[in-house]
Design a protein that fits this description.
The structure is a single chain. By secondary structure, this protein is of the alpha/beta class. Helix content is about 60%, strand content about 10%. It folds into two domains: about 5-135, 3-Layer(aba) Sandwich (Rossmann fold), CATH 3.40.50; about 145-210, Winged helix-like DNA-binding domain superfamily/Winged helix DNA-binding domain (Arc Repressor Mutant, subunit A, Orthogonal Bundle). It has ten helices and five strands; from the N terminus they run E-H-E-H-E-H-E-H-E-H-H-H-H-H-H. A five-stranded parallel sheet has the order 2-1-3-4-5, sandwiched between helices. Helix 7 crosses helix 8 (about 175-190).
């Protein structure tokens, strides 16, 4: 499988050299000359990993990473800083911001390739486990059985009503509502009402219960 990488580097000679080396290693490489161009490309195309210099015009590497971190569809892209700034405090800043790797110039191109492969492999494994977790979670949610009264109370909880308001609407005691809410928490294995609502919406329990 050929992976799509973006190299953000304003030194055209260096960027071309890195691009040719990585292409020889089987990667597809897109070059951006500054952080702004890189951000626009990241929003337009899918990249498996981004390699970026720090000191650049318009938007530097730190600003680019910060902008990517703010978008749900982009913040998971593995990000490597490739820069002449090799001070410990610069590395710490980069890692604290969420970068996944840091190489100082001059660097061994084989080390760059090794880091790229390691990060892409790690991201692939993480994604696979995440998908499995979602499947298991949905499967568990679908296996939960609610009584008609539990369904009614769950819908009202999702609507944001308090236990007291629910007791008035259903013409039952507050203690009885609390008992049912506690049972809902036990069945879904949630710790509180907020998590119960999020869990119900995420697993479409609202739609299922309203339809019965």
């Amino acid at each position: 499988m050929s992976y799509n990488l973006m190299l953000v580097e304003n030194d055209t000679v260096l960027s071309k050299a890195i691009q040719e080396y990585l292409i020889d290693k089987g990667f597809n490489i897109t070059i951006a000359n500054n952080g702004l161009e890189a951000f626009e490309l990241a929003n337009k195309y899918k990249f498996d990993l981004i390699i970026s210099d720090i000191m650049m015009p318009v938007i530097d590497g730190y600003e680019l990473l910060e902008k990517l971190q703010k978008l749900d569809k982009l913040f998971k892209i593995p990000f490597i800083f490739l820069t002449a700034k090799g001070m410990t405090k610069d590395r710490i800043k980069g890692y604290n911001m969420g970068c996944h790797g840091y190489l100082s110039k001059p660097f061994d191109p084989e080390e760059l390739v090794s880091l790229i492969k390691n990060l892409i492999s790690r991201e692939s494994i993480t994604s696979q486990y995440s998908q499995k977790d979602n499947i298991v979670e949905t499967s568990v949610a679908n296996s939960i059985h609610f009584t008609p009264r539990e369904k009614s109370i769950l819908n009202l909880v999702i609507d944001g009503l308090t236990n007291k308001e629910i007791s008035v609407i259903l013409d039952t005691s507050l203690r009885n509502v609390e008992k049912y809410v506690s049972r809902l928490l036990q069945k879904t294995k949630m710790k509180n009402r907020t998590l119960l609502v999020k869990y119900s919406i995420h697993n479409n329990l609202l739609d299922e219960t309203q339809g019965e």
